[in-house]
Specification:
The chain is built from 19 helices and 20 strands. The protein has 830 residues and is of the alpha+beta class. Helix 1 runs antiparallel to helix 3 and helix 4 runs antiparallel to helix 5. It is elongated, with a radius of gyration of 71 Å.
Length: 830
C-alpha cells in the first residue's frame, strides 16, 4: 500500500500566512509604482492645461484681435480710396449711390472697430507696447479718428449736394445766356448778310473801275456799307461776349473767374457805344437782349458768382478729403500699433506656453525616472532575488517531475508565504506520484500480459505498428498466416517493410511473383493510407483478408483473417447462382414465347404502344390478343407473385384463356373472365375444404367489334382509361378477383359497352404502374398522375406517348426499388 502523505491545504495550516506575504508585498510595490504613475499623469494634465490656456488666449483673443485691427486698416483704405468718387458725380442719382456706398463702408468700419475694441476690454489691465505705448489709449484714439472721418464725410456730402444745386443754377443761366446771345445774333444776321452782299458788289466794281472816280451808284453803295458796319461790329462783340461767358463757366479758380469778368464789362460798354449808330428798328431789340445779358452776368445770381460759389464748395470738399486722408493715415498707424501690440502679446503667450511646457516636461521626466528607479529597485530587491528565484526553482522541479523525473531535488521549504505553500504541496505531490507510478507499473505489466493472452486467443492474426511502422505487438496467428510455419523471427521493433519483403522472398504471396518491387510499392502505399480490406491469394490457394486502420498517435493495427473456407463456399454459391440464372433466363424465353408476338399485336392494333417490364427476369404480368371473325380480344393481366411463381401463374392463365377462345370465339369479356375464374379455382383446388392456396389474378378484357364500331370491356379489379376530346374517363371493372378462395366459383363479371370514336385512345395498366414509389415525397405514381400524363401527351402519336410514359415513369422512380412488374398497353382504333 502507498504510504500516507501529508495534506498541505492552506486553509488547514495551523500557522497563518503573514499579511506581508507575496500578496501584501506585491500590492505595496504596485501601489508605489501606481503613485508615481498618478503623479506623472497629474503633471502631464497640468502641463496640457496650461499650454491649452495659452493657446486659447492666442486663438480666441490675440489672433482675432490682430486680424480685426488689420481688417479695420484695410477698410479705412477702401473708404478713403472710394471717397474722391463722391466729388466726381454730376447728378443727384450718382451722388446718392456713391454716398450710400461710402456711408455703408463707414458703418462696417464702425462695426469692425467695435469688434476690435472688445478684445482689449477683456484685459484686466492696459497693455504697454514696448513698455511705452498704452494700447487702450491707442484704441480710444482710433475711435476718435473714425468719428472725425465720419463727420467729415457728412460735410463733404453736404458740399456735394450744394455743388450739384449750383451746377443746376449754372446750367440754367448758361441756357438763358445762350438764348439771349442767339436772339441778338438773329437780330443782326440780316444786316450781316446785306453787308456781305454789298461788300461783294463793291469789290467787283472796284476791280472793274480801279482808276476812275466813284460813280453815284458806288457812292450810294459806300454809304449803305458804312450804315451797316456798326451792326456788323455789334455781332462780333456779342460773339466775343458769349465766348467769355464760356471761359468763366469753365474757370478752375475764383481768381480766374474775377480775371475773366473784367472783359465782360468792356464788351458791354462797346456794345452800348455802338447802339446810336445802329438802325432804329434793330437798336430796340438789341438793347432789350443786352439788358438780359447784363442781368445774367452781374449780381449774386450772375454766372460769375455762381461759378465762384461752386469752386468754393469744391475747394472745401477737397480740403475735407485731404483731412480725411491724413486722419486715415493716423488711423492706419494706430491700427498698425494695435496689430503690433496683439502680435507682441501672441509672442508673449507663446513664450509662456513654451516655458510652461519645458518646466512640466522636466518635472515629468524626473517623475518617470524616479518611477523607473523605484520599479527597478523593487524588481531587483524583491521580485528577482526573492520571488523569481524561488518560483524558478519550483518551476524547474515541476518541469522535471512532469518529464517523469520523480527523483529531482526540490527547493527547501522556508518562510510563511504562498510560495512556501506551493513548495510544501509540490513535496506532497512528488511523494504521491512516486507511489502512483509504482502502482501503475504493476498494473501496466498485468494489463500487458492480459492483452497478450487475449490476442493470442483470437483466431485472426493481430499486429500493432507504431508511427514509424515498427512492430510493437503481434500474436502467433499473425506469424502463421504471414509465413505459414516458416521460421522467420518477428521481434518487436522490426519494420513493416522488412516483414513484407521477407514474405515476398518466401514466395508466399501469389500476386507479388510477377513484379515484386512494384507490388511492394503499392502494398506499402496502401499500408500508409489504409482503406477497404485487402484480399490476398497465397501460393497454397489460401485466401487471406488484410484489414488495416490508423489509430491515435499515428500508429496502425492490422488484422489478418483466413477466408479460404468462405472463398470456397462463395465459389460454390456462385456456380449454383449461375445455373439458377441460366434457368430463369431460359424460363424468360419460354414466357415470352407463350405471350403473343409483337408482330401479331401490331397486325391486330396497328396504332399502339406496349410497356412490358418484369421486375425480375420473369414476372407475373401478361398481355394477350386473339382475333376472330367477329372481332378481336385484347387482354392485360396481373397474376399473384413475382419472378418464377408469377411466371408460372401467367402460363396457367394464358393457357386457360387460349383454350376458351379456341373453343368459343363468341364469348363476351365478362363470360371469359367468369370461366377463367371457375377454371382457375378448380385447377388450384381452391373450391375444396381446407385449401392452402390463395392465388389468382386481375385482368382487363376488351372485345373490339369494328363492324359495329363498338367495344365491350370487362374488368376484374381492373380499369380502362379512355382519352377523347371530352376529357379522360376511367371505366372501372368489378371488384372481384379471378381465383382466390374467398370468391364464389359462380362469380359473374359485368360487360360494359364503349362506343368507338375517332382519335380516341384506350389504355390498360397493371398495379406495377400505380403502386410504384418515387418522387420527392416518396409516394405512389397513382391514377391522378397517369391522368395528368395522358392530358399532357394526348396529342402525340401513340408510340411516342408510350416512350414518353416510359421516360416519365423512370424519372419518377429514380433510385427507388421496383416494387412490381409493369405492363401498360395503349391503342387507338382507326
Amino acid at each position: 500500500m502507498p504510504k500516507e502523505t501529508p495534506d498541505f491545504d492552506a486553509d488547514q495550516r495551523t500557522e497563518p500566512i503573514a499579511f506581508w506575504g507575496v500578496r501584501g508585498k506585491l500590492l505595496l510595490a504596485f501601489l508605489a509604482v501606481a503613485m508615481f504613475s498618478v503623479l506623472a499623469a497629474a503633471t502631464g494634465i497640468y502641463s496640457i492645461t496650461q499650454v491649452g490656456k495659452s493657446f486659447d488666449q492666442i486663438t480666441e483673443r490675440r489672433v482675432p484681435e490682430a486680424l480685426a485691427w488689420q481688417e479695420l486698416s484695410r477698410s479705412i483704405e477702401r473708404v478713403v480710396r472710394g471717397a474722391p468718387a463722391l466729388l466726381a458725380v454730376d447728378n443727384e442719382t450718382d451722388r446718392k449711390i456713391v454716398s450710400d456706398e461710402v456711408f455703408s463702408q463707414m458703418e462696417t468700419l464702425k462695426i469692425l472697430l467695435a469688434d476690435a475694441r472688445q478684445y482689449g476690454e477683456l484685459d484686466d489691465e492696459p497693455y504697454l507696447l514696448d513698455g511705452a505705448i498704452n494700447t487702450s489709449d491707442a484704441a480710444d484714439r482710433a475711435v476718435e479718428l473714425v468719428a472725425r472721418i465720419d463727420d467729415n464725410f457728412l460735410s463733404i456730402n453736404q458740399f456735394v449736394v450744394d455743388r450739384l444745386q449750383l451746377i443746376q443754377s449754372k446750367k440754367k443761366v448758361q441756357t438763358r445766356l445762350g438764348r439771349g446771345n442767339a436772339n441778338a445774333q438773329r437780330t443782326l444776321l440780316p444786316s450781316s448778310r446785306v453787308l456781305g452782299s454789298q461788300l461783294s458788289e463793291w469789290r467787283n466794281d472796284a476791280s472793274e473801275n480801279a482808276d476812275t472816280d466813284l460813280t453815284p451808284e458806288q457812292q450810294e453803295l459806300a454809304r449803305s456799307i458804312i450804315a451797316f458796319y456798326p451792326e456788323q461790329q455789334a455781332a462780333v462783340l456779342f460773339d466775343a461776349f458769349n465766348r467769355q461767358i464760356f471761359l468763366i463757366s469753365e474757370a478752375s479758380t475764383i481768381e480766374q473767374v474775377d480775371l475773366l469778368s473784367f472783359p465782360l464789362e468792356r464788351i458791354h460798354t462797346d456794345i452800348r457805344q455802338l447802339l446810336p449808330d445802329i438802325r432804329t428798328r434793330v437798336r430796340g431789340r438789341l438793347e432789350k437782349q443786352l439788358d438780359v445779358l447784363l442781368r445774367l452776368t452781374q449780381g449774386p445770381e450772375g454766372l460769375p458768382e455762381i461759378r465762384k460759389a461752386e469752386l468754393m464748395a469744391i475747394t472745401q470738399a477737397e480740403e475735407l478729403l485731404g483731412l480725411n486722408t491724413r486722419l486715415s493715415t493716423f488711423l492706419t498707424n494706430r491700427s498698425a500699433t494695435l496689430v503690433d501690440a496683439a502680435n507682441q502679446r501672441i509672442s508673449v503667450a507663446n513664450l509662456e506656453a513654451v516655458e510652461t511646457r519645458l518646466q512640466n516636461r522636466n518635472i515629468l521626466i524626473a517623475v518617470v525616472l524616479l518611477s523607473i528607479v523605484s520599479s527597478l529597485l523593487i524588481v531587483w530587491l524583491y521580485v528577482s532575488r526573492n520571488l523569481t528565484a524561488r518560483l524558478s526553482a519550483l518551476s524547474n522541479s515541476m518541469l522535471a517531475i512532469a518529464d517523469g523525473n520523480l527523483k529531482t531535488p526540490l527547493p527547501p521549504v522556508m518562510g510563511h508565504d504562498e510560495i512556501t505553500l506551493m513548495a510544501e504541496a509540490l513535496v506532497g505531490f512528488r511523494d504521491t506520484a512516486v507511489e502512483v507510478e509504482e502502482s501503475n507499473l504493476r498494473e501496466i505489466a498485468t494489463a500487458r500480459q492480459r492483452l497478450v493472452d487475449a490476442i493470442e486467443s483470437i483466431n485472426e492474426g493481430f499486429a500493432f505498428y507504431d508511427a514509424d511502422d515498427r512492430l510493437v505487438l503481434s500474436n502467433q496467428r499473425y506469424k502463421d498466416l504471414l509465413y505459414d510455419g516458416i521460421g522467420v523471427d518477428l521481434t518487436p521493433g522490426i519494420t513493416f517493410e522488412t516483414i513484407l519483403r521477407n514474405a515476398v522472398k518466401t514466395g508466399m504471396i501469389e500476386e507479388a511473383r510477377l513484379d515484386p518491387e512494384e507490388w511492394l510499392e503499392r502494398r506499402l502505399e496502401r499500408h500508409r493510407e489504409p482503406g477497404q480490406p485487402l484480399l490476398q491469394k497465397r501460393k497454397d490457394n489460401r485466401w487471406i483478408m488484410v484489414s488495416e486502420r490508423k489509430v491515435a498517435g499515428g500508429g496502425s493495427v492490422a488484422i489478418y483473417s483466413d477466408l479460404t473456407e468462405l472463398k470456397q463456399r462463395e465459389d460454390q454459391l456462385s456456380h449454383a447462382n449461375t445455373q439458377i440464372l441460366s434457368s430463369v433466363h431460359y424460363a424468360s424465353r419460354i414466357q415470352e414465347a407463350m405471350l403473343p408476338s409483337r408482330k401479331a399485336l401490331s397486325n391486330m392494333l396497328p396504332d399502339h404502344f406496349l410497356i412490358w417490364e418484369p421486375r425480375d427476369i420473369v414476372g407475373g404480368d401478361f398481355f394477350w390478343c386473339h382475333e376472330t371473325d367477329h372481332g378481336a380480344y385484347v387482354i392485360v393481366g396481373d397474376c399473384t407473385g413475382h419472378g418464377v411463381p408469377g411466371a408460372f401463374m401467367t402460363l396457367i392463365a394464358c393457357g386457360l384463356i387460349d383454350r376458351h377462345l379456341r373453343t368459343n370465339d363468341e364469348m363476351s369479356p365478362g363470360a371469359l373472365l367468369s370461366a377463367l375464374h371457375a377454371d382457375l379455382q378448380q385447377l388450384l383446388g381452391q373450391n375444396e375444404d381446407n385449401t392452402e392456396t390463395d392465388d389468382g389474378l386481375e385482368a382487363g378484357v376488351c372485345f373490339i367489334d369494328k363492324a359495329n364500331q363498338r367495344m365491350t370491356f370487362a374488368g376484374s379489379r381492373f380499369s380502362l382509361f379512355i382519352s377523347n376530346s371530352t376529357g379522360i374517363n376511367e371505366v372501372k371493372g368489378d371488384k372481384a378477383g379471378i381465383g382466390y378462395n374467398r370468391y364464389s366459383p359462380d362469380t359473374q363479371f359485368t360487360n360494359i359497352d364503349v362506343k368507338l370514336e375517332p382519335a380516341c385512345r384506350y389504355i390498360l395498366a397493371t398495379d406495377g404502374l400505380f403502386d410504384q414509389i418515387g418522387g420527392a415525397k416518396r409516394r405512389g405514381f397513382g391514377k391522378v398522375r397517369l391522368r395528368d400524363f395522358i392530358a399532357e401527351s394526348g396529342t402525340t402519336r401513340t408510340a411516342e406517348q408510350g416512350d414518353r410514359l416510359r421516360e416519365a415513369f423512370a424519372a419518377f422512380q429514380g433510385d427507388e426499388y421496383r416494387r412490381d412488374d409493369l405492363t401498360v398497353l395503349g391503342f387507338e382504333i382507326s
